[in-house]
Each structure stands twice: as C-alpha cells, then as structure tokens.
Amino acid sequence: MRFTILHTNDVHSRFENFARITTKIKKMRDENTLVLDAGDFHDFMDLMLQGTDGQAGAKLLKEAGYDALAIGNNEMFEGVDTMHSMTSSTDLPFLSCNLVKKDGSYLKYVKRSVILVKSGVRFLVIGASPDFKEFLDLMDMGTLPYKEAIEKEIDDNKGKYDVCILLSHLGLREDEELLEVVKGIDIVIDGHSHVLMDKPHVVNDIKLHMSGCYGEYLGVVSFEYDGQVHDVTAENIKVKDEEMDENILEIISTNKKKAIETLSTPLYSIDRDLYHDVVEENPMTNFLADALKDLLKTDIGIINSGVLNGGIRKGEVSMKKLIEICPSPLNPTYMEVQGKDIKEALNMSLDHDLCYKDGRGAGFRGKYLGRLHVSGAVIEHDGKSVKRVLINGKEIEDEKYYTVATSDYLERGTGYTPLGENRNVRYDIDYLRITLKKYLCRKEFVDNAFIDRWIIS
Fold first, then answer.
1. What's the confidence (pLDDT) of residue 457?
2. d(C-alpha 35, C-alpha 7), whole Å
3. Are strands 394-395 and 372-375 parallel, antiparallel or unpaired?
C-alpha cells in the first residue's frame, strides 16, 4: 500500500502562501495521506497571532487538514501562557517529546507523540523541539535531552504502531547526528534549517525531507508499506500559481479584525514625533538605546536601527504600533565588551553599504542591518572613520571591558562581528518592543532622544 506525507516547515506566518498550500493539500489529500508541519508555522511578528494569543494559527492548520504540528522555537518564544492558549484551543496535536516546564513537568495540552491510523496502518508521529536554554529559562520552560526523549517515545509505544515518523524542528545537522545512533525511525520530516530539498536526504538508510521556508513549497514524501517502509520518494512543489483557499482567507480576515481591535487600545500618548532612518542618526533608535541602557544599568547602550521598522508619530501609542515597528523577538541583553571592539563596530557603522545590508539573522524580522546608535557615549568622526569615542565623558580605553546594553542579535555578532567578542552575557525576559512600551511614556527619554551622539569633527 502506498502512502503520502504532505508537509511544511518554517512557514513563519506567511499566511497568503499558506492559503495556496491549503488549496494544493485539498487537491492532493486522500485516505492514505498524512499532513504534517515541522514547526515555526507561527511567527509572532504577525499582528493576528499576537492579538489572538496564537489561536488563529491553530484554526488555519485545522482548516487545511493538518494531522499534527511539531513545536518549533517560534511557537515557544511567546511563553507558557501563549503556548497554553494555542494548544488548548484545538484538538490538533501540538507535538514535542522534549519540551517541558522549567521544573521538568510536561506542559498541559502538548503531546509528546500521536498515533495516526490511515487505511489500517498505524503511524507513530513524534515531535522534537530545539534547545534554546537561555531563552526558555526566562519563560519558565526547558527541554529534555532530545535523543533520550525520542528513544523513550519509541520504547513506550512499542507494539502500538507500524511506522515511526519523526517530526523534528531540531535542524538538519542535529537530525543527521541523531539518525546515526537512534534506531526505529522510518522517516524524518525536518525543519529549522530552511533547506529546500529536491530529493530525500539519506542518513543511515533513513529518509529525511525538508521544504525550505516561508510557505513557498509543499513537501511530498511518498512510500510503500507492506510490513516495512520502502521505495521512498520526495519532492517539493512550488505553490506560487495556486489559488488562495477562500476558507483560509476568511479565517485570516475575521481574526485579523479581532486582533487589530484588541491591540489598538491606546496605552498613552507622546507629544512629539520620533522619526526613524536606516543610515542616519535618528531619535527613534536613540530612544531605544537610552531605554536599554537604563533598563540594564550599563555603561553604554548600543543598538542597530534595523531592529526598528519605523518611527512613532506624536499622539496615541498602542501595542499594535509597537509590534509593527519592532516585530523582532529579540531580548534586551547585557554583555561586557572591550573598548577596541566597540570602537571597531562603531567604525563599521559609518559604511552605508553595510547599513543597507540584509539584516537576516536569528530573531531578526526587519529588512536592513542599519546603523549603530548609542547611549552614554559620543562618537567624533569625519564621515568616513571614527576619530574619538567618549564614554560618559572619558576617552574609550582599548583593553577595558565596558558593560553594554544591547539585543541578543548584536550579542551574537550578527552584522557587527566585533560585538560578538563579549563575556558575561545575560538576557532580559521581555522583548525590545516591551522595553519601548515601558519607556515611551517617560517624557524625559523622548526628549533626550533628540540629542546627537554622532558628532562630525
């Protein structure tokens, strides 16, 4: 008997593409088809997800006919309450055998695995999630060692299934290593690494497949089962030319209206415009640098303008606006960096081509890398290179370590590699947009954002 797995991974809330995928799924699905997602379907840069605590995403998956979803890092990153909201709102299985609460107990409504029956054949589908320990700790969650957790699911279900499918958001390298040592897995549907595969990837005679990212392709794995899995084929089908499913569009429209209404409630007002720019010093990014420095009580604040998508006009401020201008799930981050590395990064920031570089990197939801903005420092320059840096009125010392408030994006050295040379890192629980929310109501911070820190000498 021949079976088919239709699958996606790393859709990242590109829901118009998903509407096309749904059309294709409904055309192709029959009684011998499983429909699976390998995680990061939800990306909370999306207003609809923010305003419905993730429930709208579960409704979309249900309408499209999915049988199960692996929990990826972007499903985790909004915390336990949002996880509970998503998983309790549907009977669609959200799977992770290794995601737990910080105390080691299992999360309510998250299943470790599920057995799906198609034409009398029993499929054990196990979910696995990546370990982002430092960030999960902030959200009262953690992960068990995934190898042992997967093996436990296989052992606990022995005799109850015929075919074992690992639905994994661990990433390609981790799954390749896993398949060298774990026995009993027949097929892996993979995610996290955003790899578009034109054929099955084979590790230790086990077939693995992934479908790129952003909902541009629908993965199709086909195989024969006659007591064992064999004759496995796989491809990715581009869905660009498919019509968008009307039911999906209706769910999006209804839930987007609901979310916008919820998120548009005014928080407070500001009395002047905070404009934004990618390459020029601007008060919007200066404001964020000041807020981070104050929040984390450091010598200086450093942030790149690319983490913000725009400024805020005077008047009412809402969570809708804050999500729109700062959608990236990036955390305020404390680190210590030597003066010479700070100075080198600032010097790099004078290169407009670098500022306009694609800002792509973990957690980034903007477009350009952007210029570095500072708080607690003055940079004297001639437009091409930095001449002098003063930190709290004193000339920077090359070998001295300074405490720096930034984001985990810059802490990793993304774009500005010298800032990756750091030590004693720690993260704040809230995202950058929550820092904005906390400080935009403080007039002195709004006013101080207009004080220039980059001075032409």
1. 86
2. 6
3. unpaired
Spatial distance between the Cα atoms of 293 and 287, rounded to a whole number of angstroms? 10
What's the confidence (pLDDT) of residue 134? 85
Sheet containing 372-375: order of strands:
372-375, 300-304, 401-407, 332-338, 422-427
Exposure string over 81-96, b if 16+ CB within 10 A, otherwise e: ebbbbbbebbebbbbb
CA-based radius of gyration for the chain: 24
Q: CA distances (Å), 372 to each of 186, 281, 285, 381, 450, in order?
A: 49, 8, 9, 14, 15
Buried/exposed 121-147: b ≥16 CB within 10 Å, e otherwise:
eebbbbbbbbbbeebbebbebbbbebb
Residue 139 has pLDDT above 90, yes or no: no
pLDDT for position 227: 94
Q: Alpha carbon of 395 to those of 179, 205, 400, 422: distances in Å?
A: 54, 61, 11, 20
Reported as a single tens digit per residue, the pLDDT across 48-80 is 999 999 999 999 999 999 999 999 999 998 989
The CA-based diameter of the chain, rounded to the nearest angstrom, is 78
Rounded Cα gap, residues 79 and 434, in angstroms: 14
Asked whether residue 234 carries a pLDDT value surpassing 90, the answer given is yes
Average pLDDT, the chain: 96
**Is the per-residue pLDDT at 133 higher than 90?**
no
CB atoms under 10 Å from CB of 201, counted, come to 18
| Percent of the chain at pLDDT exceeding 70 | 100
pLDDT of residue 11: 98
**Cα 415 to Cα 82: distance, rounded to the nearest angstrom:** 31
Pairing relation of β-strands 229-238 and 217-225?
antiparallel
The confidence score (pLDDT) of residue 277 equals: 97
On the 0-12 / 13-18 / 19+ scale of CB atoms within 10 A, 101 is middle
Tell me how far apart the alpha carbons of residues 104 and 226 are, in angstroms, rounded to a whole number. Answer: 39
Q: At a CB cut-off of 8 Å and minimum separation 6, what does 228 contact?
A: none
DSSP 417: G
Q: What number is the average pLDDT over the span 6-32?
A: 98
**pLDDT score at 158:** 96
- Helix, strand, coil content of the chain in percent (nearest 5): 30, 30, 40
Q: Cβ contacts of residue 400 below 8 Å, gap of 6+?
A: 338, 339
Query: Which is nearest to 16 in space by CA: 263, 341, 243?
Result: 243
Of the candidates 173, 236, 237, 228, which has an alpha carbon nearest to the alpha carbon of residue 205?
228
